[in-house]
Amino acid sequence: MSPISTAAHPTRHRAARIAAGAVALSLVGAGVLATAPAQAAEAGGQGTADSLFPNVRNTGYDVQHYDIDLAYDHATKAIAATTEITATASVELSSFSLDLEGLTVASVTVDGVAATFSRIADLQSTTHKLIVAPATPVTGTFTTVVEYSGVPTRHTDPDGSYEGWVATADGATAVSEPVGAMTWFPSNNTPLDKATFDFSFTIPTTITTSTGTGPAAAVSNGELVSRTANGDDTTTWVWQQHEQMTTYLSLASIGKYDVHESTITLPSGRTIPEWSFIDSDLSDARKATSLASRAEIGPVLGWLETAYGPYPGNSTGIVVDNVGVGYALETQDRSFFDRSASRGTLIHELVHQWFGDAVTLSDWSDIWLNEGPAEHIGSQVEAALYGSDATEAVWYSAWNDTAADDAAWTTPVAGFDNPAELFGFQAYSRSAMALEALRLTIGDDQFDEIFAQWYLRLNGGDGSTADFIALSEEISGLDLEAFFRDWLFDLDKPAWPLTRTLEISSSTLSGEQLQRGDKVEYTVEVGNVGATDLEGGTVEIDLTGLVDSATVSESLAAGLTRSDDTLTWAVPSVEQGTLTASVTFSATVDDDATTGQLNVSVTAVDFGADCLPCESSVGVSVAIDPFGMPTISGTAIVGETLTADPGVWAEGTSLTYEWLRFTADDAREYEEMTGQPVDPGFVGQPVAGATGATYTLQPGDAGYAFLVVVTGTLEGFDPVSSLSAPIAFVTAPTVPLPTATPSTAPVSAGLAATGGDVAPLGVAAFAAALLVAAGAATVVLRRRRAERV
């Protein structure tokens, strides 16, 4: 994932949705083309469909870049400014509007030619228009230059708060959310139109107030390119914002500042500059608080970048000024704080750099998509980095402390239409509660993935409530219509989600294999790990992977019912805390079961739950029955052929052979080491290439006793290996070879005939014992002494 691109972003194509004034071609007669009259130039639409501010924005063009050159006179509090706007239009515009409140416009040019202009101002409807009529209609890319001056006025919002250009004792700070940018520069003042910015501020080099004279600074978004002393007691500060930015995130602040600079290395490996500005006249206590928060910028950005992707800006920092607006603001890259920057507020504004800045809202009634994540993710950061309460404790407490009859619940989170409610309870607390409820409903992994994808897919653009709901359903795989209706749109207090754990376990030990006729007991358990008592619920137990090989007991515990291959458990109420409710049922492995797995899974039907785990898998091991006991026929003389008779096996069994051999010394050494009778399956070594039903004895086989392992495989059963008794130690042929074929001697006689070397080992007795073991259907797998491996 890459940061916001200045080359392209989703809003760049919004203007293209307007029908283009293309030249139309039609057929006239046979093969003759005639050109229709060109579409007449039109006026850009002076407004939008925004729920709260329909009279802000122009729909006729899309801004690419703002270049703002502003001079500030501290004695008069006035500004003299020039703003150059590069924009594109997909239709031919006879006129268009810019949003500008107050100030006196001296001139407007479009593509270097003087344009006529007029003004419309209506405080009640938040309409402040500079209407521009170029000398000739414009289309494609065009440049508008506006020269203006005066003492900027702050903008009063419908809720009585104020924003825009706010004068201070030592200068001014311009904060622009939601519409205050128009108090200090003309713009297309909508979240839907992002652009890059150049800011040039010429200000007094020093400023004198009642507290004394001090160095002044001019602060804005992006990167500080230069600060140049002009030789006339003024300094020009130049900032550049290379990333896409909406007007409501623009910042200008002029005053006496303590300037702090550093660099921050992010987890992605990128190093970015940090410029922070703290009002020189603030108390030592406020400065100390702000500096302590400044020290946390790196750790917080690191946590957020690790969680959601690369930091979307190219610089960072804070601006702390004594303004008196009573709020902080997520001005892009460098957030603004009024009088003091606390740690919690800093975290909130840094979260906004991803959610609210990189991805902005599509409509001002979607403000919860900015403030909800900033509040909720902020509480995650507090818990992860600073040991604060877990998110459920934080937001359950907020939910529990707000009474059901509180009027706060009567404003929907999304879709409200009163701009006075823009920054109300629903935008912050209820939004964060809704996100916590979503996390509890779908689980941590999917919840985190929603926000990672929200940033990945929409970085540089905007998103709506409908977009967020669709993404949540896509990632969770759930139908969340009822959930979001309850938490975002209904005008009452929603129920807090029930939070549980769900698991299934069996009575089998780890690695244990069941046999036919064995009984297994299953336990399903629900634990209450939430903040409220659990009032029942339903769990479904899927028996599909069990019933083909086992029979479930017909005697079911209270609360369990069965329908076909599903058990349904009506979960009883579970008190808040770590208390649990459980239910058991049993099954018996069928007499005709084959080798395989018994699989049982559980699902919470009407509540969210973390599974630990959700499935139980128990192995069933069934040997081939019957299986054969191999014997060897043939003479133990070099040159003769030994033949393995596999015995009787179940129909359809596939057989493989492996011939082993050992010497008397091997047998003696084994008995000396173990003090046990010889186990030929242990001392026997495989004969290379001897994998058929017959084996012809080679000269090198003299002195060895031979045995054969026959392995049978049959679908639905465990493979079985059976070991024959050994044949006598092989001797070299006499010369000449006998003319008559000697009869095959019994194994015990053949072993006894080897003489004194064998007798002390009791090989004959061993061979007889081996026959008994074979008759008992002992399964013997290949084994070797460690020193021979």
Distance between the termini: 52 Å
Q: Identify low-pLDDT runs.
A: 1-38, 737-789
Number of separate strands: 42
Q: Shape, please?
A: elongated
Sheet with the most strands?
11 strands, mixed
Strand content: 35-45%
- The percentage helix is 10-25%
Mean pLDDT: 87
Class per helix and strand makeup: alpha+beta
- Number of H/I helices: 13
Gyration radius, rounded: 42 Å
Give your account of this protein's structure.
The protein is α+β, with helices and mostly antiparallel strands and 789 residues long. It is 19% helix and 35% strand. Strands 3, 4, 5, 6, 7, 8, 9, 10, 14, 17 and 18 form an eleven-stranded mixed β-sheet that branches. Strands 11, 12, 13, 15, 16, 19, 20, 21 and 22 form a nine-stranded mixed β-sheet that branches. Strand 30 and strand 31 form a beta hairpin. The chain is elongated, with a radius of gyration of 42 Å. It starts with 24 loop residues before the first strand and ends in a 14-residue tail after the last helix.
Topology:
Layout: E1 25-28, E2 32-35, E3 42-43, E4 62-73, E5 78-99, E6 104-110, E7 113-114, E8 116-122, E9 127-133, E10 138-150, E11 154-156, E12 162-168, E13 171-175, E14 195-204, E15 206-209, E16 212-219, E17 223-229, E18 234-245, E19 251-265, E20 271-279, H1 284-294, H2 297-308, E21 317-321, E22 334-338, H3 343-352, E23 360-361, H4 368-386, H5 391-400, H6 429-442, H7 444-458, E24 462-463, H8 465-476, H9 481-489, E25 499-506, E26 513-514, E27 519-528, E28 538-542, E29 550-552, E30 560-563, E31 566-570, E32 580-589, E33 596-604, E34 608-611, E35 615-620, E36 631-633, E37 641-645, E38 654-663, H10 664-674, H11 680-683, E39 685-686, E40 694-696, E41 704-713, E42 720-723, H12 747-752, H13 763-775
Parallel strand pairs: 3-5, 4-14, 20-21, 21-22, 23-24, 25-34, 26-35
Antiparallel strand pairs: 1-2, 4-5, 5-9, 5-10, 6-7, 6-10, 8-9, 11-12, 12-13, 13-19, 14-18, 15-16, 16-19, 17-18, 19-20, 25-27, 27-32, 28-31, 28-33, 29-32, 30-31, 33-35, 36-37, 37-40, 38-39, 38-41, 41-42
